[in-house]
Amino acid sequence: MLSPQFTSLPPLSLYIHIPWCIRKCPYCDFNSHEGAVQEREYINALMSDLESELPNFWGRTIHTVFFGGGTPSLFSADAIGEIIAGVRARTRLSPQAEITLEANPGTFEAQKFADYKSVGINRLSIGIQSFNDAHLKALGRVHDSAEARRAIEIGLATIGNVNLDVMFALPASHTGTEPQTMAECERDVETALSFNTPHLSFYQLTMEPNTVFAKKPPPLPDHDMAADMQLRVEAFLEAAGYVHYETSAYAKPQRECQHNMNYWKFGDYVGIGAGAHGKLSMPGSPTEPPRIVRTERVKQPREYMQRAIRGDAVHERRIVARNEVGFEFMLNALRLNEGFAIREFEERTGFSIALVNRALNECEAKRLIERDHLRVKPTPLGRQFLNQALEVFL
Amino acid sequence: MQHIRNFSIIAHIDHGKSTLADRFIHRCGGLSDREMSEQVLDSMDLEKERGITIKAQTAALHYKAKDGNIYNLNLIDTPGHVDFSYEVSRSLSACEGALLVVDASQGVEAQTVANCYTAIELGVEVVPVLNKVDLPSADPDRAREEIEEVVGVDATDAVLASAKTGLGIDDILEAVIAKVPPPKGDVNAPLKALIIDSWFDNYVGVVMLVRVMEGTVKPKDKLLFMATGRNHLCEQVGVFAPRSTQKETLSAGQVGFVIAGIKELDSAKVGDTITLAQRPADSALPGFKEVKPQVFAGLYPVEANQYEALREALEKLKLNDASLHYETEVSQALGFGFRCGFLGLLHMDVIQERLEREYDMDLVTTAPTVVYQVLQRDGTVVNVDNPAKLPDLSKIEEIREPIITSTILMPQEYVGSVMTLCNEKRGNQVNMQYLGRQVMLTYDMPMAEVVMDFFDKLKSVSRGYASLDYEFKEFRTADVVKLDILINGDKVDALSCMVHRAQSQYRGRQVAAKMRELIPRQMFDVAVQAAIGANVIARENVKAMRKDVLAKCYGGDITRKKKLLEKQKEGKKRMKSVGSVEIPQEAFLAILQTGDK
């Protein structure tokens, strides 16, 4: 069978990209731009963009919304409120929807957290990165650790449902600090744990192509040290009652990020805003076979706004081919420590598990995954060497 | 015949031979400007890039000289590298004259000297030309002196030229007419035509470039090849001007092509004499030799399913290169591949590159080795061109290695360091000659050392000024042992190599250390051992990689993560799995990269 067959459509999420930052961080490879925020024009563009996409998911319920960036917290609460209201008016937004906003822990932003709550934000993801001022500086961050702590406290007191993004294996700054030591990493973990937030994300800093760091790599802790830090982070967080449920994500029981879970489980999502990516399953019609479609919006904020207003913000729309769908599913699903149910694979991709049987066998032989007739999940070895498993599906 | 001149050009790589040839063709109107893509005679892309001529080619030029006569000048191009000395000697024996082209700023180099000596031995008139005189660093007087001192040719009248600017081109052509004697030979005598070169053309089969020494050849003649004893019917004759032009006959004194419906190059060997079956010559022209490969290496496809494609590619290369030898070889580590024999290292490089470039092959090449003669206890002698095939030690009476006589030419100030290098490489000094500011050293040396890294080292100790020429001398008893490499306890046959016993400990440690550097960290520890027989002499450990996972992967944009993984996978494709260990291609050549003590 060449096209997928969907028995039911996957849950749907909405991603909204806010492309501006006060300053671009040297490690960041996201679509972010320094420059003046243009709230009014951008809101109009987003709404027009959403309307142009509506026919592709008409009638489907949106279960989660995520404002990502860039720095969405540069937008006023009124602006965020207007966007949420606009989404509610145009789509079926579930009343229980998780609505997350990414925020910078600056003083200017923290003052707005209560207002964000009042306009509908019910989850906050704060980009802490580190509690060590020297490392924050090496990372090119505009906030310091005192601001970070205050922002977390305010976030907890207002919105309550808070995630902290923290990184490890941090670089030395060019002004002479040493790369992060194990003791410093532990201190960051302990500080993060002290706030008892329902969710924590701990990433190893990665040198991404096309970033300042990629061009001028700073001194970093070596491979073995970074691996040791990963183990230490896992041990500390698990001891504190967090469930390690995805490569870099940890949550108190039942407090996983619903929006990210939908990505990881190959759910559908509409992506609006400059450079936003979307993925939608189409049930098929008399004229077109069922298919999975990925979209990407134009990246430059200026061009995006001009084109979105004309309903022409899509830079690229491509159909996921039969020979790609297995890899694309695994890329995210095998990041989950619990893996996935075979039924989920068949529902979400529209293909029988036979499509990837050979690759699964190879991964099993290499002890990267384990499976029974119901589920497939990565082994501890597979979690450490996920890329090796993913290559098998390419 | 009085208006024919057959000549070739002797020059070191980069001294401007090809550019000069192009100038001649242009000057004599052989090609229009549009057809005159740079360096016409070097037609293979690779030759253009490396600036070397691999196969001899030719151009028949028509030049109106100052004396008012139109001369037919046949330029026979010769390869300029040590690996192809036999081809050079055949090209030269087809000529009455040779231009000795010397870079006026760099002076004479060893290969030029060797080729010049060949020319003089063959009775070829040498006409010196100083090229690149337009460069500020040019020193014509010094170059002139060197030609006289080193080569022993009178250079008083050496033509000053610049192939690049076109300076002196007419002077060279006039000198050719004045100094090179016209060919001799009787057009009515029994045919004797020397095969200078042969190659395969998809439409007409084998094309032979010949110099007719005696007699006449024309289509429908029944040809006899004197070395192979085979008969073929002549189909076409003609000349290259430089495009091919058919003629009714080729007769004594002329250079041109003969096509005789031949399907494989083995029937048209360079140096063979063609005569007529009906009226054969009483003897063949002197100098014919079977060329034997000197250097061997295993070539394996990175992916096993490319084996057939590699075979086809080698077959096609073989069509045009009789000196390439190959046969199927099976390695426990690398699977199915070919043991290939080459004239020398450059030849090997060229073949490898053509396979990769023109045939898009991904190859693993094992370290090159020479042929060893092994005298067994039972009195039989076997030739071993693959260290893994060395007979069991208990059966070996002695091992003999090939010795070459090498001639090295260098400025005086580098003599000390070059001698030290030659001694390190187990060389025996045979001669040392002061030739003006240059010194010519002659050493007998194991060829295995030259194959290893001698040439690179020579260049580095002499800052690039020393040049090398060598020829095979004899097989000599040697105290060599087989060095094996074990990966995670398993001997990898493709990594075995022969080393001198005195160097074996050091080499073993070096190879193991280099392997540790080259093998990337894997999901488990990798142990690398070097052993001689059952005796492990070095051990290194490649520590296991700890993790290989993308830290951040927000589901939104998957394209970049996909690209990253594709790149990582692509990188692995260039590695060979030996057991469960991924070994990069360069690691199979680790023995060549072991540095200094």
Summarize the structure in short:
The complex is a heterodimer of chains A (394) and B (597). In chain A, 38% of the residues lie in helices and 23% in strands.
Low-confidence stretches of chain A: none
Shape of chain B: globular
Count of DSSP strands of chain A: 17
Structural class of chain A: alpha/beta
**Can you count the helices of chain A?**
16
The rounded Rg of chain B comes to 27 Å
| CATH fold call of the largest domain in chain A | TIM Barrel
- Bin the helical content of chain B: 10-25%
- Sheet with the most strands: spatial strand order of chain A: 9-10-8-7-6-5-4-1-11
| Spatial sequence of strands, sheet with the most strands of chain B | 11-10-16-7-8-15-12-13
- Radius of gyration of chain A (Å): 21 Å
CATH homology superfamily of the largest domain in chain A: Aldolase class I
Mean pLDDT of chain B: 87
Structural class label of chain B: alpha+beta
Could you explain the architecture of this structure?
- The complex is a heterodimer of chains A (394) and B (597).
- Chain A has 394 residues and is α/β, with parallel strands linked by helices.
- Chain A has 2 domains: 12-261, TIM Barrel, CATH 3.20.20; 323-394, Arc Repressor Mutant, subunit A, CATH 1.10.10.
- Chain A contains 16 helices and 17 strands.
- In chain A, the strands form 4 sheets. A 9-stranded mixed β-sheet of chain A has the order 9-10-8-7-6-5-4-1-11, sandwiched between helices. A 3-stranded antiparallel β-sheet of chain A has the order 12-13-14, with no helix packed on it. Chain A has a 3-stranded antiparallel β-sheet with strand order 15-17-16.
- Chain A starts with 11 loop residues before the first strand and ends with a helix.
- The model of chain A has no long low-confidence stretch (mean pLDDT 95).
- Chain B is α+β, with helices and mostly antiparallel strands and 597 residues long.
- Helices cover 24% and strands 34% of the residues of chain B.
- Chain B is built from 12 helices and 33 strands.
- Chain B has an 8-stranded antiparallel β-sheet with strand order 11-10-16-7-8-15-12-13.
- In chain B, a hairpin with a 2-residue loop joins strand 24 and strand 25 (438-446).
- Chain B is globular, with a radius of gyration of 27 Å.
- The model of chain B is unreliable at 46-56 (pLDDT under 50).
- Chain A binds chain B through residues 15, 29, 68, 203-206, 209, 223-224, 226-228, 230, 247-248, 260, 262-264, 269, 271, 276-277, 294, 296, 327-328, 331-332, 335, 381, 383-388, 390-391, 394, and chain B through 521, 523, 543, 545-562, 564-566, 568-569, 572.
